[in-house]
């Protein structure tokens, strides 16, 4: 007998959209059958008229993190509650190396943050901030522990230690790690910022000018040269500009293994938001761009240039966002884990910008494949974890911060009307959210040790 049967839904995967019933045993997908053909189950959920999709995999979150000597407002409990409420069943968070510290110690520290709090499954990247010989030598150990991606920030003293980073790239590539690269050129940003501050242009209305699209594209070019020389695969996080996307396209035409991610704020918001009262609440790195860049990102989602949409969830209170006296001191990031899946459906699928299969590809299947979790995650196939979302495609929801599960007291998409929202989120066969109500104990989430990056991930 099945533990759980979900019947009547339209099952959506990157390769299939069809009516099917799905059976679950011991937290795994046990059977996928034509309507009415499943064996009996202890519990049956009637999902007629709804979509059944793989739980989303968000490979870019910052929970219980410290920036600007402040801690983000969401820890692994509140952050993963928000994720689950929005149909995300797995996250990959960033473990930060301490200055002069060990990569393995950073991973252990993040384990201690997550293990008793996360309500969904999780994994880690490790951020290499000090590429010392000792830290570089630890990269294979991190990979052996299932942490198979290394974060590189190109605007935090990167140029002064570029040769050390190049050594790290080579070791990472040799042991099957993927480089997750934040591409912004620190010297171009520094030059622009100095000129603005010298002219007395301190407020958030000048923030976008301090980090122009050119600074992103230049960093992408630089990283592409370094990864070509070292043989390391590159995954560019949260790309925001047409120029950066064009660099990725050119590299792929030449046969390079280059992957790209963008984040929701660049798809739904533009730089005019900085003119609003309290415009600092929209500050993120890179900044919001013009409509030209937004439209270029939508085109890149549709044509396959951008592989993943991830949130870069990094939440603050409104007071912390707006209290700084200049744009260089405004903490970057915002809460958006809960809206990742429904808003991409609403703005992408419902408005005809994306196919329904492409929506699932961008939020679940591609990140699971790229980050070594497929087909355990991101798939509706027999033997996969039963991480599933029953999605109501016609449900209307107005985004209101007071109804969200993040501890942030504002939402960047406040007032957006969203068409389509999760009815139920199921994690390893257990319903943990129903009708936006989270019912799951802290600490039920499990660490996912990931496989090494495969250059042939697209064909998996």
In short:
This protein has 460 residues and is an alpha/beta fold.
Strand order of the largest sheet: 8-11-12-13-14-15-16-17
| Overall geometric form | globular
Separate helix tally:
13
Proportion of residues in helical segments: 25-40%
Report the sheet-strand fraction.
15-25%
| Beta strands, count | 21
Describe the structure.
- It is a single chain.
- By secondary structure, this protein is α/β, with parallel strands linked by helices.
- Helix content is 31%, strand content 24%.
- It is built from 13 helices and 21 strands.
- The chain has an eight-stranded parallel beta sheet with strand order 8-11-12-13-14-15-16-17.
- Helix 3 runs parallel beside helix 4, helix 4 packs across helix 7 and helix 7 packs parallel to helix 8.
- The longest helix is centred in the middle third of the chain and has 18 residues.
- The mean pLDDT is 97.
């Amino acid at each position: 007998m099945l533990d759980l049967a979900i019947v009547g839904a339209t099952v959506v995967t990157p390769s299939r959209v069809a009516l099917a019933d799905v059976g679950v045993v011991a937290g795994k997908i046990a059977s996928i059958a034509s309507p009415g053909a499943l064996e009996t189950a202890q519990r049956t959920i009637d999902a007629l008229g709804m979509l059944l999709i793989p739980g989303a995999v968000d490979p870019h979150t910052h929970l219980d993190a410290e920036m600007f000597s402040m801690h983000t407002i969401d820890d692994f409990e509140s952050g993963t509650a928000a994720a689950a409420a929005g149909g995300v069943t797995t996250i990959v968070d960033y473990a930060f190396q301490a200055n002069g510290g060990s990569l393995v110690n950073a991973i252990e520290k993040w384990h201690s943050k997550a293990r008793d709090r996360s309500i969904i499954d999780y994994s880690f990247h490790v951020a290499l901030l000090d590429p010392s010989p000792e830290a570089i030598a630890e990269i294979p150990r991190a990979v052996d522990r299932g942490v198979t991606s290394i974060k590189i920030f190109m605007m935090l003293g990167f140029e002064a230690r570029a040769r050390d980073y190049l050594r790290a790239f080579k070791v990472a590539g040799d042991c099957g790690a993927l480089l997750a690269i934040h591409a912004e050129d620190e010297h171009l940003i520094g030059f622009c910022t100095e000129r603005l501050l010298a002219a007395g242009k301190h407020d958030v209305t000048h923030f976008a000018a301090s980090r122009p699209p050119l600074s992103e594209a230049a960093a992408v070019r630089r990283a592409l040269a370094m990864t070509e020389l070292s043989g390391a695969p590159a995954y560019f996080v949260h790309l925001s500009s047409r120029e950066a996307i064009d660099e990725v396209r050119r590299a792929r035409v030449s046969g390079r293994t280059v992957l790209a991610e963008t984040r929701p704020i660049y798809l739904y918001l533009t730089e005019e938001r900085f003119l609003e009262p309290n415009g600092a609440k929209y500050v993120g790195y890179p900044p919001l761009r013009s409509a030209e860049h937004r439209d270029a990102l939508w085109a890149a989602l549709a044509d396959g240039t951008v592989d993943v949409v991830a949130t870069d969830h990094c939440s603050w209170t409104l007071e912390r966002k707006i209290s700084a006296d200049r744009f260089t001191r405004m903490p970057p990031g915002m809460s958006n884990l809960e809206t990742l899946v429904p808003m991409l459906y609403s703005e992408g699928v419902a408005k005809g910008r994306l196919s329904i299969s492409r929506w699932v590809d961008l939020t679940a299947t591609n990140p699971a494949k790229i980050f070594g979790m497929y087909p355990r995650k991101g798939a509706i196939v027999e033997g996969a974890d039963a991480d599933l979302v029953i999605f109501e495609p016609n449900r209307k929801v107005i985004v209101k911060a007071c109804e969200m599960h993040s501890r942030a007291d504002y939402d960047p998409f406040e007032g957006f009307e969203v068409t389509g929202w999760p009815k139920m989120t199921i994690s390893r066969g257990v319903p943990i959210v129903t009708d936006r109500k989270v019912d799951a104990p802290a600490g039920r989430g499990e660490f996912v040790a990931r496989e090494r990056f495969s250059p042939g991930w697209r064909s998996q």
